[in-house]
Amino acid sequence: MLIAEDLLLLSYDDESGKATFDGTRLEYSLAGALLLELSMLGKVDVAGEGEAVKRDRLVVRDASPVGDDVLDHALTELSDDEGKKPKNVLGQLRKGTRDRLLRRLADRGLLREEEGRVLGIFPTTRWPAADATHEAGVRQRLHDVLVTGLEPDPRTAALVSLLLAVDGVNKVVPSDDRRAVKRRAKEISEGAWAADAVKRAVQEVQAAVTAAIVGASTAAAAGGS
């Protein structure tokens, strides 16, 4: 399972099949999850000093296929965007990612695709859980890390960082002390769970999500005035 797939399962209500996170935040974070996965696999990186690509710009270390259709599609996209700031490639990378992953999860039997119509006119699709076993395991790991205090593995730490970006930590890991859980999540995100390049990529993802939300809010305000 990809980090992006775990994030997507966590972001949809098992019964209603509807997303519980803001759509813009979710889509940028899914794109960020693909970037992080490729970074953790050594495929892409954020350039340091003395490289052909400017510092803090996207660099492709290994363009050979991963063997996963979603990651390979993302790697091709990123290969065309080498030299750009990571946060500036997420807008293109997010296109179609949510639908592609939802259908793949349905094909695997984890979600169920249900077509319907709003007011009998507008088509809509819901994605309730078909088998929540894997998701339950992910939620338990997050609880163990954020509430019990266990040390996270790199993939769980990456997922925690992405949940921070979508402001979803407290939704996914309910607790009587919401502040403590969020504080722990921030500690993990900033901790020594990955190489510096991967952590820089996390920061770029979080910055891109914030910029996307500000941009969407500004556009909505302008449209309403």
TrEMBL record:
Work out whether the entry's keyword set contains Secreted: no
Entry GO terms, CC: cytosol; endomembrane system
Q: Name one GO molecular function term.
A: phosphatidylinositol-4-phosphate binding
- The protein's superkingdom reads Bacteria
Biological process terms from the Gene Ontology for this record are:
Golgi organization; Golgi to plasma membrane protein transport; Golgi vesicle budding; retrograde vesicle-mediated transport, Golgi to endoplasmic reticulum
Pfam families in the cross-refs: GPP34 (PF05719)
State the Gene3D superfamilies in the record. Answer: yeast vps74-n-term truncation variant domain like
Quick check: keyword Electron transport in the entry? no
Instruction: Indicate the principal place this protein occupies in or around the cell.
Output: Golgi
Localization (cell): Golgi apparatus membrane
Q: Which UniProt keywords apply?
A: Golgi apparatus, Lipid-binding, Membrane
Its membrane topology is listed as:
Peripheral membrane protein
What name does the UniProt record give this protein? GPP34 family phosphoprotein
Which organism was this protein described from? Jiangella mangrovi
